[in-house]
Every structure is written in C-alpha cells, then in structure tokens.
Amino acid sequence: MAQDIIYDAWEVRDARKRVALAKRALATSPDCADAYVLLAEANQNKALELYRKGVEAGERALGKETFELEVGNFWGILETSPYMRARAGLAQSLWDCGQQNEAIAHWRDMLSLNPDDNQGIRYILAARLLEIGRDRELNKLLNDYHNDGGAHVIWCKAPLAFRTSGDTDKSRRALRMALESNAYVPTYLLGHKRIPRQLPDYVGFGDEAEAVCLVAENLNSWKTTAGALAWLAARIEAEKALFN
C-alpha cells in the first residue's frame, strides 16, 4: 500500500504534494524506502540522513535472508529496487559530503549485489576512481566490464591512458575510440557548450544528450588529470588539420 502511494507521488509534479504523499506512505509503512528517497530529493540539507534512513528501511523490508540468498540478482527482484535507489542516493550524498571511501564502498557493494548494473553504478564509480587517482582500482573495474562498449566506459579510458603513458600511441588510440563512441563529448569537456542545469531525461547511443550526461559525470576527472584537457584540445585540432 505504501509503495502504491509512492507510484502516485511519482506522477505528481508539485513538490509539496510529492512530499505529502511520501509522508503518507511512511505513515502507512515506516519501511518504505522510496518514501525516504522522495523526501531526500526534496530536502538537500537533510539528504544524507534521509537516504540513510531509506537504506535502513529497505534492509528491514527485505530481511537478512534476501541479502544472503539473492546476491548477484538484486535488481531482478522487484522488491529490491527501492533499497537500491536509496543506497545510490546515500552513496552520492556521502561523496558530496567528502566521505569518499564510504561512498566508494557502497558503490562497490551495489555492484556485488547487482553485477548486471541496471542503474549504471559502474559509470559513476569509474568517474570517481579516475577523479581521485585510484587507477589500479579503476583498471580492475574496467576489466570487470570489458564487454561494455558504451561511451561512458570508453571515455574513461582516454584520460586514464593519458595519465599513465602521456601523449603516446596508446592514449591517442584510446581517444580515437572515445571520439568514435560519441563525438559530441569534447564540445562540453572543453567548454564550447555549457552543461545545462537540467540533464536530459532520455539519451541515445552516441547522441548529444548522452554527451551532456557523460560530461556532467566525468568533467572533474578530466580536470584532476593534469594536462588532460589541454591534450584533448590539441588532439582535436591535430585531427582537424589532417582533413584541411
């Protein structure tokens, strides 16, 4: 019954009405994790606390046995989705508060619970590991998902290759592959276009909406890789010169 109230809340645009419905859901069941997610989204000042309560509520609702028996198959069970949404919010809030190690531990554990990663946690984790220079862990993550041909993964490999080997054939190949996966990315990485405040709701493979979401997640990792943005700009100009 509480989850049905949340489904109704998702259809409501008015923020105050969503909050009221979330509180009603909690009054119906204090173990409604998605209610805490909605409240956290509406109150950034208390987001960390609310997401943590959401995770705790999800743990109570699922029970210890679910975590023991369903590791690796979590997203395939409908009832686990609210818990996973709350935990994703908790991890991001921890990161935003500077608690990087705890955030990374949550993202890693979520991938253990759901290796198929329907939520795209691997993309967030890859960007964060690159941002703080944990290259060995990033390499392992990329190897774990070596069959992923998506732009998010491929665009992580280019700055990683540049950071580890400089401007070499290896890093240039990585960049060419990245450009082939999505050619719109440099426009936003280099600041020729601004990332909109409201990210696209829908993205396609290789389209501009994908580039916007990708850069929003990865810009800091490029900035913290010394010389990477200048190298990217130089390589883009060099490629243009070849065709002029």
How confident is the prediction overall: mean pLDDT? Answer: 94
Inertia-based shape: elongated
Tally of separate helices: 14
Output the helix-strand order. Answer: HHHHHHHHHHHHHH
Distance between termini?
A: 64 Å
The number of distinct β-strands equals 0
Specify Rg, calculated over alpha carbons.
20 Å
Subunit organisation of the chains: single chain
Query: By helix and strand content, what is the structural category?
Result: mainly alpha
SSE inventory with pairings:
Elements: H1 2-10, H2 15-28, H3 33-42, H4 47-62, H5 64-69, H6 81-96, H7 100-113, H8 121-131, H9 135-144, H10 151-165, H11 169-181, H12 185-189, H13 208-223, H14 228-242
Helix pairs in contact: 1-2, 2-3, 3-4, 3-6, 4-6, 6-7, 7-8, 8-9, 8-10, 8-13, 10-11, 10-13
Describe this structure in words.
The protein is mainly alpha-helical. It folds into 2 domains: 1-118, Serine Threonine Protein Phosphatase 5, Tetratricopeptide repeat (Alpha Horseshoe), CATH 1.25.40; 120-244, no CATH class. Helices cover 70% and strands 0% of the residues. It has 14 helices and no strands.
